[in-house]
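Query form — protein Inner membrane protein yohK

QUESTION: What is the three-dimensional structure of this chain?
INPUT:
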Amino acid sequence: MLALLPNINYLATILWLALTIVIYFGALHLHRASKPLRFIQPALHPLIVATLLIILLQSLTHTSVSEYQEYTQLLSALLGPATVALAVPLYRQLRLLVKMNWRVLVPICVGGALAPVLSWTCLYLLNTPLNLQMTVLVKSITTPLAMDAAGAIGGIPALAAVFVISTGIVGAICGPALFALIGVNNQAAQGTALGAVSHAIGTARAISIGEQCTAFATLALCVNGIATSLILPILFG
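ANSWER: The structure tokens for Inner membrane protein yohK are given below.
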């Protein structure tokens, strides 16, 4: 019986990997098919639908989060190459980025600072615990950096991950709708906003808008992530 355990884990790994991929592409197809339903489509974002379905499957199969993470390690390992691949549109738009220089960096810094400060102000006025206030300051940078930065300034790393993911999903859903509402059609501006405020998930949304949007989102993601993770520990560590 013990000799069969590795095979069982191996089969479970294949099964969960296949289910995760199928569920995500199914959610992606549902999101695209719901395009005519403009008011419903944002709620059918692939990340929301896929996450809820996977949580439901975990509950039905009594699979813990740690077990699911173990079974889908391959997908987690691919995050690194996927992030590096974002350098391709960045390189293709490098001439434009260099030409704009400070006109790109200033909006990234303003957006990257304004979003968490507004959230922190709301929590401060509501007199929430200090560790919660510190945690929300890292909500606009990518998860690994946010968790480390939150721990360094007295925040809660696990809760930081929740804030980061929630911020990214809201930005990816509401960002394009907000651009249309206020008439922002410039891809450079759209990408800068998505990357600076909604980090990696916003950058993933930028890919569907265009290469220029993706390049500016990638730059904003990197600059804001590095700056925030360096500055916050200096200010509050």
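ADDITIONAL NOTE: The chain has two domains: 2-77, 87-236.
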